[in-house]
What does this fold into?
Amino acid sequence: MRGGIFSVLSDFLSGLGRAQFFLLGILRAVPGALLRPRAIIRQLYMIGVLSLIIIVISGMFIGMVLSLQGYHTLVRFGAASSLGVLVALSIIRELGPVVTALLFAGRAGSALAAEIGLMRATDQLSAMEMMAVDPMRHVIAPRFIAGVIAAPLLTAIFCVMAIGVAGGHAIGVELLGVDAGSYWSQIRANVDVHDLIQSCIKAAVFGAVISWIAVYQGYHAAPTSEGVSRATTSTVVVSSLSILALDFILTAFMFR
Amino acid sequence: MTDARTMPAPAADSATLVRVRGLHFSQGRRKIYDGIDVDIARGKITAIMGPSGTGKTTLLRIIGGQWRPSAGAVEFDGVNIHKQRQRGLYALRKRMSLLFQNGALLTDLSVFENVAFPLREHTRLPEAAIRDIVLMKLEAVGLRGASKLYPEELSGGMARRVALARAIALDPEMVMYDEPFTGQDPISMGVLMRLIQSLNRSLGITSVIVSHDVEEVLSIADFAYVISNGQVLARGTPDEIRASESEYVQQFLQGRPDGPVAFHFKARPLADEFLERA
It folds into this structure.
């Protein structure tokens, strides 16, 4: 029993060590990748623009649900006019970065892992190495950079959709009759610029972690269909758990 | 022709581009190479032959520096490949190329861009020059008309010809071919054989061919190795290999199922398996 636990712990720590060395390799390749912005822009399209629909629709519905739930709670205390600030702070501080990151891991992270895993299985990465082209600089770093840039932008779009006209505002103001002036003025008065900065920091950290996990899993996938499938699943599972754990840690530091 | 196990390893000389000495390599618990010596002569066509699973492709990957041997040395033009850092290794790889069995074309690039890829990465040639070189290389493999297609639109044989055009884009000193004839129709196979020969004769490119197509390979090779069970079973010119008295070599050349090389993987007797209770 003790041997089993020791073995699992040892595997976990050695995997973590390998992933950290891999991250160092990515960071070393980042300056070279930045010299080729076309590859980054292409990846921004692949993982950012193509994730827009799921982010926009999810943002709308989460804003609507939050507004509906919030109104029925606040109205009991005669505080329905505070609906705007409830929706805005919940979305900006927590739900925006976390839900966007979870959706990003499911949509873009899995796609990244599968793409790189298939490149490994079909010898494309080996072919690059044999052509004296570093796959870290050419394939991995542009995807990592694009993930770090795309996640905060998608989070901002998610927040706008959730709080704005199509989300919380549509339900709170248009459907339930909260005054539009108090909805928006409460948001202006109570949402601090620090909330926005902290939201951006969370989103960027989540984006970096998801991209790191996705490219690591894809790069080290066994060169079989099962290997690619495992890499994709691991990306979503490990990313989701990491996001939730990191969210707690970041929140604890930010709101001390 | 001498049985390789009784023959001393060839002496080192400047005519040797790749020198493999005492190579040991294992995958998991399976021993692939058990101390083999191989020399690839500069400017010649060397064939590496042997039954499936003997590690012929592995040898190419070890020579390319992708995999590290557990013991032994692999030198390219006098430089130990596995003692190089990334920069040194990449400098050596610019002088060699490997034609992968499945082509390994980059799927997000067109045929033209795949062949142009090493040129764009390693030269500062103007676009017009890159275009001319790519079209020349594609013409050589008969696929200039397919330059706008993407890898998923190509057959397996076409993909391998595009990969060959890419492999020779930078005019390397050595090209390693991993099963270049598999899946090719007779016309394409003939063209490929002539192309490998002409690259070798006119440009002096050293060629290493790993293949099961014994007759085709022996018809163009200057020197050949037969490898099995982690050992070099025979080495010599094609005529010497054909005239070999080794039962191993003759079984392989004639494709006989019975002989010293077992067709069946090691197993219990079939009758025992049938009689075994569920």
